[in-house]
Design goal:
447 residues; FAD/NAD(P)-binding domain; seven-stranded mixed sheet; globular
């Protein structure tokens, strides 16, 4: 009996999970074996990260365990360190540090992207991104802990530093993260009587002349106005020059101190692609045909943020699909269909999708949306944002849990407690263990 063809998917993010689920449904029994490789054992639904950070959603509900969702597929928690397509082989490092080689018959490269940081002094030491559930939880606890400390100190200079929050990058990720966290902080500050909402300073820094380039200029301007009405400073045509020791220096001459720098100024393809023999463009993305096949190959495919896919809906023959979740998920579905067609000797289909528009949440009951030219603002846009992403969330159980979180938010107040010890859970135990032999309160040696 011939051995099953092996389909290997690099990346268990939204695109990778969507593709694997579709393959599992479309493949006949025994037609092929599917392996998914990712450094994390779960998929994070990134559009819900701002709400997880703000406390509207339980963080566990915005991540989908790969092994739970992909029964029947092999899930390998490992880091791909190189791709050798000439030998049809991957080199992977397992969690225990061992290095193994994984062969494939069909390869799907969908590792996604990482934050694109710039060599700005102090950024690596002071900044944090907003692409993972860990970063979202950290920022929630961090912002609330700043309110806690500010309410306990009489040092005015320290209070100003603690209550100043800087976000760099005016795309969807930065806008939604800042809007949700500002909304949460404004709600939480009522529990900190010594601190007033007017003492908080929220600053958005954007190098371009507008925010949210994904929508039309009027919608971009509407969003900017809504943010400024809430007291958020939107600095356009401005770049960051330094963050050293928490002292922010901007290109417009403004300088101030802060404890919070959130970097959402763009992404770049996963660095794993640098050690591969696949063709890449000047931005490091894998070059693909409209059928999502990597150029020069017939059995390697790619999609999502790391793929340079021709945009067949554009009049420009050199146009590429934008790195958005909307394209990534649709490409993942077609990619799965094309792999099945390849295995069965059937013709492959071109990817062609006109960008439908965007929806953004700007805090509780506030939003902005532009879908197929129709503009929505305020509560209708916020509701559309929630309905759309709830529909796109994988698995029925996670949809139900998220809906439950939202319904519980209606009759009850938001939970605004900071759990900073989550970031160093051993600190208290280490402190206790190191007090052995020291005098206790009764004069005797502790322990």
């Amino acid at each position: 009996m011939p051995e099953q063809p092996r389909i290997v998917i690099i990346g268990g993010g939204h695109a990778g999970l969507t593709m694997a689920l579709r393959l599992r449904r479309k493949l006949r029994a025994g037609e092929a074996a599917v392996t998914v490789i990712d450094t994390q054992p779960h998929m994070t639904y990134q559009p819900f990260l701002p709400e997880a950070a703000a406390g509207s959603l339980e963080p566990r509900h915005v991540v989908v365990p790969l092994r739970e969702a992909l029964r029947g597929c092999q899930v390998l928690t490992a880091q791909v360190t190189s791709i050798d397509h000439a030998q049809r082989e991957l080199t992977v490092m397992l969690g225990d540090g061992k290095v193994e080689h994984v062969s494939y018959d069909v390869l799907a490269v969908v590792p996604g992207s990482i934050s694109r940081a710039l060599p700005i002094p102090g950024l690596a030491e002071q900044g944090i991104g907003f692409k993972t559930i860990g970063e979202a939880i950290y920022l929630r606890n961090h912002v609330l802990s700043r309110l806690d400390i500010a309410a306990s100190t009489r040092d005015e200079q320290l209070r100003r530093r603690l209550l100043t929050f800087v976000f760099v990058g005016g795309g969807y990720a930065g806008i939604e993260a800042m809007a949700e966290l500002e909304s949460m902080a404004r709600y939480a500050i009522r529990s900190y009587p010594p601190v007033s909402p007017q003492e908080m300073r929220w600053v958005l820094v954007e190098a371009m002349g507008r925010i949210m380039p994904e929508v039309s200029p009027p919608m971009s301007e509407y969003t900017r106005q809504r943010l400024e009405e809430r007291g958020i400073e939107v600095k356009l045509n401005t770049t960051a020059k330094s963050f050293e020791d928490g002292h922010v220096v901007l290109s417009d001459g403004d300088e101030f101190d802060t404890d919070t720098v959130v970097w959402t100024a763009g992404v770049k393809p996963h660095p794993m692609l640098e050690d591969s023999d696949l063709p890449r463009d000047t931005k490091g993305r894998v070059e693909c045909t409209a059928k999502l096949q990597v150029r020069g190959t017939h059995n390697v495919f790619s999609a999502g943020d790391c793929a340079a896919v021709p945009d067949l809906t554009s009049s420009d023959p050199d146009a590429l699909c934008s790195p958005s979740a909307q394209h990534a998920v649709r490409q993942a579905k077609l990619l799965a269909d094309n792999i099945v067609a390849l295995l069965r000797g059937e013709p492959l289909t071109d990817y062609k999708h006109r960008y439908a528009g965007s929806v953004a949440g700007l805090g509780l009951f506030q939003g902005a949306a532009e879908v197929y030219g129709v503009k929505l603002k305020g509560f209708p846009a916020w509701l559309l944002h929630r309905v759309y992403h709830l529909a796109k969330m994988p698995t029925a159980s996670h949809k139900a849990r998220i809906l439950g979180d939202w319904l519980l938010e209606l009759p009850f107040r938001r939970q605004v407690v900071a759990l900073g010890e989550l970031h160093d859970p051993r600190a208290e135990f280490v402190k206790a263990a190191n007090t052995r032999g020291l005098p206790g309160p009764n004069g005797r040696a502790a322990g």
